[in-house]
User: Fold these one by one.
Assistant:
Number 1:
Amino acid sequence: MKSAVFTLLLMVGLAGSAAAQKQDRHAELPGTGEPTQARVDELTRQMCNSLRLNEAQYIRLRSANQIKLARQEEISWQYKDNIAEQRAKLSELESQYEAECGRILTPSQLSLFHAEQQRDMPLTTDPLEGGLG
């Protein structure tokens, strides 16, 4: 009986120290935590309404959105001083996300998804690119 209580106390102590170390890691690296559930739910709900997803697609897409948003935050924080590298990593992440969407969505849903992405994509121009001189 004493050994069972001792083992239980030891496990609780180890779990507590692991949780404290995880909190320290998040304090050192802000922006590497999980995206808020509300943000993931809102993005997935918008996609569900516009693409008319079934339940299985919704669940798979929600997981993909959670991973994408977490990686976006991580890349933004990790490469905040190197904008060119940040853009390259975000572009790579976007292509991986589109590939995952290709596995989840039907061809008609995928064409709607691409049409929405083109419509929502802001037109940005770099004043240093494409100029004369």
Number 2:
Amino acid sequence: MKKNFLAIALLTIAGGWWMAARPGDIVTDLGLTTEQVREAAFANITSDHLSLPYTSKVRQLAKKIPDGSRAAAVNALGGVIRSYASSSDFRTRYLNWLKDKYRISDEQTREATQAQSTSLNDAQAAYNQQVAMIQSTYSQMPPATLSMMIQSQIEMTQQDAADAEGAEKTARTKELAELKRLQALSKTNPTEFKKQYVAHFSKMLNQQAAADQGKMEEDLARSKQQAADYQKRLADYKAASNLNAVLKQHLTEFIALTGSVDFNAQLTRNGSKMEFVNPEYRNKSANWKLLYRMGKEPVLAARLFAQTWAKELETKK
């Protein structure tokens, strides 16, 4: 069970510390800073690990509190924590933390929405549009520009042919011969060169488009799966972004745990350690045992505080 950040109030006065039960002064009375309490509160609602603003000075105060002041201390510190949990700063920090946790952004949301609505025909049409745009651009270039471009194409094809084997090498060698023929034509008849080169280039683009059909289908399937995964994260993020519901869940879990503690449980010594006489209690969670060690007075005070808070959150749905 995720630890409830209200447990800060309990653990901070575990063993009972003497202090003035005044919400405005209790943080100072504990030798803490407001920032330490806020950081601990935030850490405890965003982590499975309990974070406590302990200092050696505060520990020393633990032995000095008399019975009867612990419930007031719990209520005072609980009020400080509750006030921060209700602030816009806490809400903003929490939502930003959630976005990082679930990897959510406006850009990814737009991309996922687009990917889910894109069909194979849409992808093919977009690809064909790109091919048509390239063909149009090449057809508008002067022969001199195309002549410079074909030289680079020849060099790349030579490298591809040198690295290829078998049928691929044969195809690259044939392509290289055709490019060199067109290059020679550019020097004798630029107009004819442009006509033939644009036609040759369009043919190569169409062949490439056919070859890319399978890859296009794979890419589309992958993008749709990624979009589905993102939508799942987005749904989880939206569910967790209801801070009142999250707080109420933590409080409800805490209330259930405190209600299960048997403060009359007996202990017996086993070597150098103390253990519960009832063997069932020996397997209880660390939180359950911690509440037992704190004692009935502060735990029941924290339970009542949590019940009141949870009830008020219920009306804010």
Number 3:
Amino acid sequence: MKKAVIFDMDGVIVFSETVYQKRRDEFFSQHGIELTEEIQASLVGSNVRDMFAKLIPTDEQRRYALMHAYEQFRLDYPIDYRQLLNPDLLTTVKVLKKKGIRLAIASSSSLTIIRKILAINQLTDFFELLVSGEQFARSKPDPEIYYFTVEQLGLSAEDCLVVEDSTIGVTAALRANLEVAALNNPCAQATYTIQTVREVLQLIE
């Protein structure tokens, strides 16, 4: 049996990607940058730093000015994370905790956002470890976030199962030698593909 499950945040705990895409569209259109469907898809699972590096690779001054503006834009952009909560999440983590499975989050989102989402949905007490991609020089698909998370749990890779929704997240977990369940993503590389987080309960056995 697995000893821990490590969850991504966006697209797994909350179904936020559609809202985030709309927010990005609104912000970047105000600044004359068009986000095609292909570009939007490439940003799923990324963080703010990597997103701006991709969209504004050469003009460093403009990049940092827009990053600062975007941080304020995000603060002012209303998102109801209660409405975005994965409806199967609470039941699943309750069962996992009852089985003695340890729970962690390893997300590209900031720790501030991770804590906010958990608090709003009364999930904080279920997770013993919160890790943000912003803590590292390189975020997903770099495996560093997962190496660090497993180390902090004091476990081996074989003891852990990762739940991801994005291809870059799946890649990061696999590079860290972890088994990974891809939620609503038919990623050929994933160890498992699942349609609901409830299926994690069978995968930990």
